[in-house]
Design goal:
Length: 471
């Protein structure tokens, strides 16, 4: 490839060459961990009303295929299965996050890759390669519109959900690789998917459940784009940087080409994607970490007079405003986006890896003790954490005691990243906590063992159907 080629052309050439060679062996365990984590998150969302509505709608469309819908085990056309599974993957807000782009790549790329791999009777090695390439393209495109000076993603400033828009492109690249399109075809798939990716963030402000299906739609769009290219549809080679291309249209002049192609194939950016230990908005995690640390010190909550949560200034609008609603979230889903409520839950002792699914129920959001603690929390900008954001999500929690003393804990980077990585035992515990909700503990352990043995599978589709079907 040439550095003067359009960005989509360079990505297409890179993906084709890497697919022919296979990804470096040191990436394989990382990709398997991400597949295990994502499938667990998706299976944990079975029964969610939003995803059930998606599944009912999709299955009413009819059609037979070779791709498996999680939960029902129904065999559907690949785009339809990817829509259901991607919606499940994002429904709990438990999917992984890339920093500093703040894109959630796995919940679109992995459902799209699995569905396309089933349709194509791909080998496990081919699926692993496609996932790695899709993740890499997605997060690199996410970095293109990350404004280092403003320390924010331009898409978010404009109310655009970067995850769903760029997830469509990453999914298209993965699917095109699995459909064995050559470099030109992969470039066309990126061009076609650029007209399909969409997503607005208004639901995070004023309500609505549509955001939960964004990543499913991205996975669906990516597969559709690759299929259309295989049938003869083409896209513009300058679809990313062109005058009317995606980056200009969504970011104006605030985008940068270097992150897309710099050291492409040498440095793997997707390895910096953070896992989530808690099923909440990622901006709440530093506060949860700090609250858990203080709880482990044996703090007497009855002696606490007030609580101060210091977080990066840009995150306040997501987890701290409006203050009255964050102190008393109206729904369990809204509670996942509340700094005060998540801190209260961690101080009281949660499930899972410290705060879990049982902390976000109709009963917990009405619990008097949690609401009392949440009402004591004042959220404010913390200069130290603001200076590091969004390269890391840090924060400080101060408990002001009735006797005048102050107890605090500061975290530089929340759990799940490079400073505080989750171990495989942690990831397995997260998986079991998710999957046992829908399948019971014994079956959850069996599914985990099957996924861990996935690279030795001879038939991805039949193995997957047996794993994810609810009895």
């Amino acid at each position: 490839m040439s550095s003067t080629d359009p960005l989509a052309v360079q990505l297409g050439q890179f993906a084709h060459q890497q697919a022919e060679a296979g990804v470096p062996s040191e990436l394989v365990p990382d990709v398997i961990d991400r597949i295990v984590d994502l499938v667990g998150v998706a299976l944990g969302a079975l029964g969610d009303p939003t995803t059930e509505a998606v599944a009912r709608t999709v299955e009413s469309w009819g059609g037979r295929g070779n791709a498996t819908a999680f939960g029902s085990g129904a065999k559907l056309p690949a785009p339809q299965a990817a829509l259901i599974n991607g919606a499940l993957a994002h429904a709990l807000d438990f999917d992984d996050t890339h920093l500093p782009s703040i894109v959630h790549p796995s919940s679109s790329i992995i459902p799209a890759s699995i569905a396309a791999a089933e349709e194509c009777s791909s080998t496990p090695e081919e699926l692993i390669t496609a996932v790695a390439l899709g993740l890499e393209a997605c997060v690199r495109l996410g970095m293109a519109s990350y404004d280092q000076e403003a320390r924010n993603h331009v898409f978010f400033d404009r109310g655009l959900h970067a995850t769903s828009i760029l997830g469509a492109l990453g999914s298209a690249l993965s699917a095109a690789v699995l459909y064995r399109l050559r470099a030109e075809g992969i470039t066309h798939a990126l061009g076609v998917a650029s007209s399909m990716g969409a997503g607005l963030l208004e639901a995070n402000r004023t309500g609505g459940t549509v955001k939960r299906l964004h990543n499913g739609w991205a996975a669906h769009a990516g597969i559709c784009a690759a299929q259309l290219v295989a049938a003869g549809i083409t896209g513009p080679p300058t679809v990313l940087e062109g005058r009317f291309g995606l980056l200009q249209a969504f970011s104006g002049d605030r985008w940068w080409p270097d992150p897309v192609v710099d050291r492409l194939g040498e440095h793997w950016e997707f390895r910096r994607v953070f896992y989530k230990p808690y099923p909440t908005n990622h901006f709440t995690h530093a506060g949860i970490d700090a609250a858990l640390a203080l709880r482990h010190r044996g703090i007497q909550l009855s002696e606490v007079a007030s609580i101060e949560l210091g977080v990066p200034e840009p995150t306040l609008r997501t987890i701290a405003e409006p203050p009255a609603e964050k102190a008393a979230p109206p729904t369990p889903y809204a509670a996942k986006f509340s700094g005060p409520f998540t801190v209260a839950s961690a101080l009281l002792g949660g499930g899972g890896l410290g705060v879990g699914h049982d902390d976000f129920t109709p009963e917990t959001v009405a619990d008097a003790q949690r609401l009392r603690l949440a009402g004591m929390v004042t959220c404010q900008a913390d200069p130290v954490s603001s200076n590091r954001f969004p390269l890391s999500f840090g924060g400080v929690l101060r408990l002001n005691m009735k006797d005048g003393a102050t107890v605090e804990h500061r975290t530089e980077e929340s759990r799940g990243g490079q400073l505080h990585p989750l171990s495989q035992d942690d990831l397995d515990l997260k998986f079991l906590d998710n999957v046992s909700r829908s399948f019971g503990s014994t079956r959850a352990e069996e599914i985990l063992a099957s996924l861990r043995a996935f690279p030795q599978a001879t038939d991805i589709s039949s193995n997957l159907e047996q794993m994810v079907r609810q009895v």
